[in-house]
């Protein structure tokens, strides 16, 4: 019998603890001292870095074993560096060849930094290295031979860089467990030789490259493989049988490729699958009814394929399923799954199929947050047990044939967390309920195009968080209730195409989200990221209701029977982007206060009974892209300048009293619309002598004035007085002009050394309209040919506002310090009173916008020129971000100018703000141009470098597609260029993205690479966007373009 049996248990525990303590003492080593060889290597590595938090820390400690990120260990009785972890340290610079000297490393992690350049390394000495992570940098070039000799490597991660080469040339890694080369530019056929050399491989991620071919060779991959990610390549063909033999697979992602054929019933062999993603391919046929064997499946995503037939009943057995996404297929029949078994289901998306019958009654999961059954053929009422969906946040049932709206709202009012409810195109001909409770958290409510009768219900007033309200295309009558103006979060209101009567309530001018940018920003909380659209009518484009920041703040009241006047207080709604009051019976004049709505993009007042004139101050609406006052009773001169240069005649037709250059020249009688003055009204009472006296006085005054003008003209010197020519400036002189002397400043880089103010005015023909070559922010741009024959572009800023003054000062200050071959050179500036003139170098070929969108002769830019323009513009923006630290904030094709060699030059820094050296953002008013504005600007009101990158990504899309960024198509699921591109990519219709004039198989690789770069620039999360330096390197890596 063993003596331990007689000892109490407590005593044994103490003995065990004492043993552990003594063991720890025996293992404890003294503080390690850095080996001189490693110390020298680390100092050389730091010498190749230009930034990063480790540099100062390393310089203050002589013992490198104590340095941040450095771990030493005993190797052959010596203290050597065995681990170097510098992940997320903000490192900038290149990878030093001195890394090779750290030949005892077991772990090297340089991930999530800004390292650039190639890998000048011979890693054959690193016999001990087990983990190598270089991911999320800007490293480039071929690497296939660099990693040869890493005999002990377990984990190799070089993802999210710019590495190139043929995938099949990777070497042998006998101990490799995890291999990740995703998000690079590797090419070649997809071969699985790596599986032959790495028998222990468990994780293989080759997604987001340019690999071609099929999945042949999977026989080489052992049954140990747990994760296989090949999404976003150019792979195709049928799935091989060998795929279904990889029985250890837990994650399988094949999305965004060209795989085709039917999904085999052998899928049942992959019983350990947790995630199956097949989206964006060309699979067809039935979904195999074998999901009963995949009991661990948590995600099943197969949207945007061509699957047909019924839902497999065995999906009901997936008790841990969290995501079921089968939208955009051709599935049909009833949805008769037993959802009571799917207790973990969070997202259900079966939209855009051909399902019929009633909505599934068994849906009752308390975990369900997102549900879309839109665009099917469902009928009947909403089941009562949907009231138990307590976690439901997003529900879209639009475009079906559902009935009993009153019952539907009575059920859904119990879903207390519901924030988005889209019921458009259902409940045909019913009456909108008068009494409903609940919906305290509702943010987006769409009930348009239902043909509903009744009035706008009072219960909506209790939805205090409502941001978007769409009741359009119904038969609602009565007046618009005043309490609408008390809804603090509301920024999108669509009551168009109803039978509403009465006046527009004055309370609408109190909508807080449309008055203050802070209130508007706080309203933009997108409840979910699911991409669902609702059509306003048969011809309208889709609105992405769930992404509130992606469509403009709007008041849409068109096609009703409204009367009364437009309240002058409407000018308070400075955050409003779209105002449509057309096709009503509105009377009175157009309030000039509308010119205070600086964000207005669309103003439609057509088909009313308005009179009076169009306020001249409307030319200050610099973002106005659509203006329509047709078919009213307006008279007088159409405003000149600004956006009014671009509006067609149809915007003004049906107003016989209107005149102007757009329609017909104005006679004197058209211009004076003011009420008669007391002097005029009493002139009939003057005797003949009085009239003669006045006439003589006026004649003498004119003669004296003429004499003074002639005398001043004859005596003028080199032209230092600008007042001689001020009569042609299309505005009365300001009182402040007489107190501010003229000032003309020419910079050292200017080509015109002997220039006067008079020369400027002569060179533009006193700013004649025939000299206008463009319309920039807050002013027009004129072509000027100076006395020495040099051509310049003169930007004449207009307006009196303080923001214009700040723009002038910021632009001059910024450009005087910003000199780069890809920036428009500022030659100088002139100021006199409140007039501001900027003198630029002239660009012979105009703007990129002109060449992409305005050419009438059918010619277009070739691909090599477009690529050259993209590279040049990127270089210019990178300089701005790095040298003077300028956020441009208005990157667009009209601000990219081209010289005679089609070299790109960034222009218009009027929206720039200089940053201090260590600032990362500036906070200011929301500015930019529709279609280019990053989504985060509307929420944070913060302009950042990554915001510029988003705008540049849109420019890249314009170069690739030849389309404008807004309203590029009118399809039901398409609103702007960004969403259109992503939609075509998701549907594997990538070739349709490109401009047909540049699509060529010889350029295919370059086109796809630039598309990939553009898509990374326009991701929603700014933290995931690359820096512009990274973009420059990517574009340069695509290939150099010959000078033309």
TrEMBL record:
The keyword Transmembrane applies. Residues 1-26 form the signal peptide. This is non-specific serine/threonine protein kinase. It catalyses: L-threonyl-[protein] + ATP = O-phospho-L-threonyl-[protein] + ADP + H(+); L-seryl-[protein] + ATP = O-phospho-L-seryl-[protein] + ADP + H(+). It comes from Solanum tuberosum. PROSITE patterns: LRR, PROTEIN_KINASE_ATP, PROTEIN_KINASE_DOM, PROTEIN_KINASE_ST. Its EC number is 2.7.11.1. ATP binds at residue 795. Its main location: membrane. InterPro entries: Kinase-like_dom_sf, Leu-rich_rpt, Leu-rich_rpt_typical-subtyp, LRR_dom_sf, LRR_N_plant-typ, Prot_kinase_dom, Protein_kinase_ATP_BS, Ser/Thr_kinase_AS. It is a single-pass membrane protein; Single-pass type I membrane protein. One of its GO terms (cellular component) is plasma membrane. GO terms for biological process: defense response to fungus. Gene3D superfamilies: Phosphorylase Kinase, domain 1, Ribonuclease Inhibitor, Transferase(Phosphotransferase) domain 1. Residues 767-1038 form the Protein kinase domain.
């Amino acid at each position: 019998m063993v003596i331990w049996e007689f000892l109490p248990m407590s005593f044994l525990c103490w003995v065990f603890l004492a043993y552990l303590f003594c063991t720890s003492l025996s293992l404890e080593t003294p503080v390690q001292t850095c080996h001189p060889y490693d110390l020298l290597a680390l100092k050389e590595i730091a010498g190749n870095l230009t930034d990063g938090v480790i540099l100062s820390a390393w310089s203050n400690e002589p013992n490198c074993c104590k340095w941040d990120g450095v771990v030493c260990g005993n190797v052959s009785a010596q203290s050597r560096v065995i681990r170097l972890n510098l992940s997320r340290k903000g490192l900038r610079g290149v990878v030093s060849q001195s890394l090779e000297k750290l030949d005892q490393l077991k772990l090297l992690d340089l991930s999530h930094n800004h390292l650039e350049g190639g890998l000048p390394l011979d890693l054959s000495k690193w016999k001990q290295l087990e983990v190598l992570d270089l991911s999320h940098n800007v490293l480039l070039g071929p690497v296939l031979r660099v990693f040869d000799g890493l005999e002990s490597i377990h984990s190799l991660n070089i993802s999210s860089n710019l590495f190139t080469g043929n995938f099949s040339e990777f070497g042998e890694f006998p101990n490799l467990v995890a291999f990740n080369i995703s998000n690079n530019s590797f090419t070649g056929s997809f071969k699985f030789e790596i599986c032959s050399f790495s028998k222990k491989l468990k994780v293989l991620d080759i997604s987001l490259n340019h690999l071609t071919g099929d999945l042949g060779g999977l026989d080489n991959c052992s049954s140990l493989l747990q994760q296989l990610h090949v999404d976003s390549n150019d792979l195709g063909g049928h799935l091989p049988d060998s795929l279904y033999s990889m029985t250890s697979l837990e994650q399988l992602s094949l999305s965004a490729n060209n795989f085709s054929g039917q999904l085999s019933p052998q899928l049942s062999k992959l019983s350990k699958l947790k995630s199956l993603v097949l989206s964006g391919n060309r699979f067809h046929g039935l979904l195999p009814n074998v999901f009963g064997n995949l009991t661990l499946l948590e995600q099943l995503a197969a949207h945007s394929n061509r699957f047909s037939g019924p839902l497999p009943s065995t999906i009901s057995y997936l008790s841990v399923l969290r995501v079921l996404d089968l939208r955009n297929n051709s599935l049909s029949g009833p949805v008769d799954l037993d959802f009571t078994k799917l207790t973990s289901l969070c997202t259900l998306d079966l939209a855009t199929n051909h399902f019929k019958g009633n909505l599934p009654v068994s849906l009752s999961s308390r975990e369900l947050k997102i549900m879309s059954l839109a665009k099917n053929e469902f009928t009947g009422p909403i089941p009562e047990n949907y009231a138990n969906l307590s976690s439901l946040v997003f529900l879209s049932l639009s475009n079906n044939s559902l009935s009993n709206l009153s019952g539907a709202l009575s059920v859904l009012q119990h879903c207390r967390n519901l924030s988005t409810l889209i019921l458009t195109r259902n409940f045909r001909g019913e009456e909108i309920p008068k009494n409903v409770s609940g919906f305290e958290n509702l943010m987006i409510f769409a009930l348009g195009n239902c043909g509903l009768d009744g009035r706008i219900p009072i219960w909506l007033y209790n939805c205090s968080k409502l941001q978007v309200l769409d009741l359009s295309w119904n038969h609602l009558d009565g007046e618009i209730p005043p309490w609408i103006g008390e809804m603090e979060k509301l920024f999108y209101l669509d009551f168009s195409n109803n039978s509403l009567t009465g006046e527009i309530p004055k309370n609408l001018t109190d909508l807080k989200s449309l008055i203050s940018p802070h209130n508007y920003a706080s309203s933009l909380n997108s409840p979910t990221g699911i991409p669902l659209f609702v059509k306003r009518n048969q011809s309208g484009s889709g609105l992405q209701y769930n992404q509130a920041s992606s469509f403009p703040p709007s008041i849409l009241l068109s096609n009703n029977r409204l009367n009364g006047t437009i309240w002058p207080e409407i000018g308070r709604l400075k955050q409003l982007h779209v105002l449509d009051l057309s096709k009503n019976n509105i009377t009175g004049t157009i309030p000039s206060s509308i010119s205070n709505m600086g964000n207005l993009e669309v103003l439609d007042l057509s088909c009313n009974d308005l009179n009076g004139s169009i306020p001249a101050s409307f030319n200050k609406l610099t973002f106005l892209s659509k203006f329509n006052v047709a078919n009213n009773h307006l008279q007088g001169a159409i405003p000149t300048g600004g956006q009014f240069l671009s509006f067609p005649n149809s915007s003004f037709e049906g107003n016989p009293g209107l005149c102007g250059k757009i329609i017909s020249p104005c006679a004197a009688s058209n211009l004076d619309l003011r009420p008669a003055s007391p002097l005029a009204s009493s002139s009939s009472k003057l005797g003949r002598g009085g009239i003669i006296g006045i006439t003589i006085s006026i004649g003498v005054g004119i003669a004296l004035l003429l004499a003074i003008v002639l005398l001043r003209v004859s005596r003028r010197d080199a032209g230092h007085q600008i007042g001689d020519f001020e009569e042609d400036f299309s505005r009365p002189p300001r009182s402040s002009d007489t107190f501010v002397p003229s000032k003309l400043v020419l910079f050292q880089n200017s080509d015109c050394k002997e220039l006067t103010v008079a020369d400027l005015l002569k060179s533009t023909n006193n700013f004649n309209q025939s000299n206008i070559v463009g319309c920039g922010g807050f002013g027009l741009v004129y072509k000027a040919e100076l006395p020495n024959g040099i051509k310049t572009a003169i930007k004449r800023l207009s307006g009196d506002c303080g923001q214009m003054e700040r723009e002038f000062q910021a632009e001059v200050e910024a450009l005087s310090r910003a000199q780069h071959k890809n920036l428009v050179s500022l030659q100088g500036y002139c100021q006199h009173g409140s007039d501001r003139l900027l003198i630029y170098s002239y660009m012979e070929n105009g703007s990129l916008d002109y060449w992409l969108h305005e050419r009438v002769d059918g010619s277009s830019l070739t691909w090599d020129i477009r690529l050259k323009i993209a590279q040049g513009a990127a270089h210019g923006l990178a300089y701005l971000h790095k040298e003077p630290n300028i956020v441009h904030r208005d990157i667009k094709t009209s601000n990219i100018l081209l010289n005679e060699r089609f070299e790109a030059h960034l222009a218009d820094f009027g929206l720039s703000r200089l940053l201090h050296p260590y600032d990362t953002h500036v906070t200011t008013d929301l500015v930019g141009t529709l279609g280019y504005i990053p989504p985060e600007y509307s929420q944070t009101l913060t302009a950042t470098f990554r915001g510029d990158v988003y705008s540049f990504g849109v420019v890249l899309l314009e170069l690739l597609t030849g389309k404008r960024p807004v309203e590029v198509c009118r399809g039901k699921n398409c609103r702007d260029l960004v969403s259109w591109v992503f939609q075509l990519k998701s549907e594997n219709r990538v070739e349709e993205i490109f401009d047909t004039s540049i699509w060529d198989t010889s350029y295919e690789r370059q086109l796809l690479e630039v598309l990939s770069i553009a898509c990374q620039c326009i991701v929603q999360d700014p933290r995931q966007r690359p820096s512009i330096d990274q973009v420059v390197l990517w574009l340069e890596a695509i290939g150099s373009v010959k000078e033309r």
